[in-house]
Amino acid sequence: MASRRFRPIVGLTGIQMSSSPSDTERLPYHGPCFVCGPENPDGLGLDWYFTGGRVHTRFQFGRAQQGPRNHVHGGAVAAVLDEAMGAAVWKAGHQVLAANLNVDYRRPVPVETDVEVEAWLDVVEGRKAYARAHLHLVGSDDVLVEARGLFVATPEFFAELHGDEGGGSAWMDPS
């Protein structure tokens, strides 16, 4: 399959990370995922990167994700923040599913405007992992949306779903 980075995506325009530090890693895609999966023709097709303990991406929401006129639907924003936080927890070595998401919408997110999402693992308590994320306009430090998530370790779910392959372990830090 050709690199998705340059493939046009209906309703969403991906943009390249500029001047990426040498320690930046592009995370692999995973199947039919609505947010990043190459097998989902209706998905968003985001590229995720990992630098300095944080998962991040830059992109534009398109008209297909519109809610109020010229602004992104809150559910589309929540899906992206969920995926970012989940990826951060997976990258830290925990096979998890989301159990609770709290999304604070500070200001509406305009469509067709460059945004950046960043997520990180906050703390781990037994099977529970807490993560945080925020979304802001590229070039601005003003956070438009922030989120907190509780993710619960469920390796048995992924073992059953994918056999003994690890099911998504490509995102996990091997250390």
Strand element count: 8
Beta content comes to 25-35%
Helix and strand content put the structural class at alpha+beta
Number of helices: 2
Order of helices and strands: EEEEHEEEEH
What characteristic shape results from the CA principal axes? globular
Summed over residues and divided by their number, the pLDDT gives a mean of 83
Amino- and carboxy-terminal Cα gap: 29 Å
> Main beta sheet: strand number and arrangement?
8 strands, antiparallel
Low-confidence stretches: 1-19
Share in helix: 10-25%
Rounded to an integer, what's the Rg over CA atoms? 16 Å
Describe this structure in words.
This protein has helices spanning 74-91, 155-162; strands at 12-14, 25-26, 49-51, 54-61, 96-105, 114-125, 128-137, 143-153. It has 175 residues and is of the alpha+beta class. Strands 1, 2, 3, 4, 5, 6, 7 and 8 form an eight-stranded antiparallel sheet that branches. The two termini are 29 Å apart.
Describe what is shown at a glance.
The protein is of the alpha+beta class.
Topology:
Layout: E1 12-14, E2 25-26, E3 49-51, E4 54-61, H1 74-91, E5 96-105, E6 114-125, E7 128-137, E8 143-153, H2 155-162
Antiparallel strand pairs: 1-4, 2-3, 3-4, 4-6, 5-8, 6-7, 7-8
